[in-house]
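Q: Can someone sanity-check these two? First one:
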Amino acid sequence: MSTIRVPDGATVTATLQNDDPGVEHNLSFSLPGLAHGQTCAGPCNRAQTFTASGAGSYYFLCTLHDMVGTFIVEP
């Protein structure tokens, strides 16, 4: 499992790099109000930019597969 730490209020640009030919993945964060990232079949890249607001421990994941990590917004 991976962990990403950012300060509260940070602007984050997260890029999904999918190198799995023909396999769909996405990158989503469990922050309130943030939509799931776009799905794409590899090879592909998808970027999303958002503000990390609300200190706490969240997660990031591919909603299509059992791939998950911890996303911490520090006060």
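And here is the second, same format, sequence then tokens:
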Amino acid sequence: MADLGHDGGLMAAKVIGATAGAWVSLVYMLPQGRREAASRFLTGLSCGLIFGGPAGLWLAARLEIAGQLSPLEMTLTGSAAASLCAWWVLGAVSRVASRYGARSGDS
């Protein structure tokens, strides 16, 4: 069985980063309704929790600042970035599907 770790600080950083990323993305581009907002927020939150650690490590390595950041900072940043990216992908897919899905029924 996988060891999920017992470091509460890293888990708190993931939760805070994922929540912040999801909220920023909701504020940046408002959703069309409550259902869209809820689905994008939950998707962003779960992606931030799942991919926060690897995304933080990747970002720190790409920016060449890995030695200057603590594991908490990398996890917080990675969770926020993963959450924000997931929201944008889901939002773009939702808007494209609603735009072109309505047209296909007209023909």
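A (reply): Looked at the second one. The helical segments are 8-28, 34-62, 71-104. The mean pLDDT is 85.
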